[in-house]
Amino acid sequence: MTVMRFFLTFVLFSLFLVAPPARATSQTFSTEELLQGFERTVFGLEYRSWSWRPYMVKKFTKPVVFYVHNLSARDRKSIVHRFVREIDRRVGGLKASVTNDPAAANFEVYVVDRAQYVPVVKKDIYKNDRAKVPGRCLVRVVSGRKGIKRSSAVIVSDEGEFLFKRCLVEEILQGLGPMNDDERLTHSVFNDSSRHSRFTVFDQIILNMLYDPRIKPGMSKKQIEPILPLVVRDARRRVR
After folding, report:
1. Which of 102, 137, 144, 100 is nearest to 121 (CA)?
2. pTM
């Protein structure tokens, strides 16, 4: 092999090594993977309490109106607003918008620095000075038989871009209904071991399944089983 041929081979091999993986599409995942993903995120809770009925569908039935409380030193409002617009664009059956009036919101997002996290969660989320504060960021969902009434997320801003973006995506999406994490979901932000920090194609399909009009708040696994394969098929078509 000549020096030139060796050099060209080395360059091509190096390019192959650093080339990014092919972008996932709605056809990347099998129907079984998506059915399991829906079950593992929608039926269950990352943080359980006696007042929940975790094995029932939870979702908004009205438009979701967001208000952002930016309490951190860095103004993150525009990033949160952009993500809300992405949700509105990518999830069929769900209308998401932003308001400048906190009284008009049913989903409040608190962007805080780490030192503010525990005080804000106790005062504004749990309204209890003795409340235990789990996690590095969180979302609280108030839900009933007719669907989610309101959600509140707390996102930490000053511990790096990855944590901020990861928390932003995961907590807001969980506040829309798929509230459980599972380490088997390698393509999802609903997995604390994954390194995803964006609205993945897998999660877009899960949200489109949840907000399909055939899926109603309060439905059980048994009730949705007959229709879920059709819901998967239609959700694939909505995700590009």
Report:
1. 137
2. 0.85
User: Across-strand partners of 208?
Assistant: none
Residue 108, helix vs strand vs coil = strand
- Answer yes or no: is 123 within a domain: yes
Domain-located, residue 6: no
Q: Which segments of the chain are extended strands (E)?
A: 64-70, 96-98, 107-112, 138-144, 147-156
218: left (phi over 0), alpha (psi -120 to 50) or beta: left
Q: Do the beta carbons of residue 68 and residue 98 sit within 8 Å?
A: yes
Query: What's the structural domain count of the chain?
Result: 1
Tell me if 107 sits within 8 A of 151, measured CB to CB: yes
Concatenating the DSSP letter of every residue in 113-155 gives -HHHHHHHIIIIII--TT----SSSEEEEEEETTEEEEEEEEE
Cα gap 152→156, rounded to integer Å: 14
Residue 150 domain-assigned (yes or no): yes
Each residue's pLDDT tens digit in the chain (240 positions)? 444 443 333 333 333 334 334 466 757 889 999 999 999 999 866 555 434 566 799 999 999 999 999 999 999 999 999 999 999 999 999 999 999 999 999 999 999 999 999 999 999 999 999 999 988 999 999 998 889 999 999 999 999 999 999 999 999 999 999 998 777 877 888 876 667 778 999 999 999 999 999 999 999 999 999 999 999 999 999 997
Classify residue 153: in a domain, yes or no.
yes
All residues at 6 or more sequence positions from 93 whose CB lies less than 8 Å from its CB, including other chains: 208, 211, 212, 213
**Domain range holding 106?**
27-238
Give the CATH number of the domain where residue 232 resides: 3.40.390.10
